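Narrative of activities, Objective 1.

The group set out to show that a structural description can be obtained from nothing but a protein's sequence at a throughput compatible with the screening campaign. Below is one input-output pair from the validation batch, recorded exactly as produced.
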Amino acid sequence: MKNLSEFKIAYIGLKVGRHSFVYRIDDTFFAFFEKSPISSGNLMIDLTLDKRETLFVLDFKLDGYVEVACDRCTEIFQLPLHTTYSMFVKFENDLDEVDEETEVMYISRNDTHIDVSQLIYEFIVVSLPIRIVHPDNADGSPACSKEVMDFLENKRKNTEEMDQRWSALLKLKQK
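Output recorded for this entry:
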């Protein structure tokens, strides 16, 4: 199993300017993070590090998919992720102001590397929607497992037949 050292960028020897890094994220990457909601995926991360005199600007472009469980039918599916994030990296003793809306990470002047593994992981996780469900089919019907959808529908009908309070509530909902 590879380690996360490839995600440590040695910035000491880099000249001022833009530098590009490409990372391939797969199942071995997610194995390093305990209790991760993601255990499998295939993503390409294009990272541009813009080294300036007093700070660094990191621009991340995530492109690929992660395998997640559908919240509706619990079936595993590939959820596409295509997004970008930016992060400013400043030294602890620099007091220059950065826009409040911007994400800022502080590092010590004694550091020689920037570890982007945790940032990449967090950007992937926050890219997940709050409710993870299969994308609908072209006709607008759910793409979830037909067996599970049929089971849920039958369960709903049986519940309505057994308990009339639900049918009264459904009548209110339809108004």
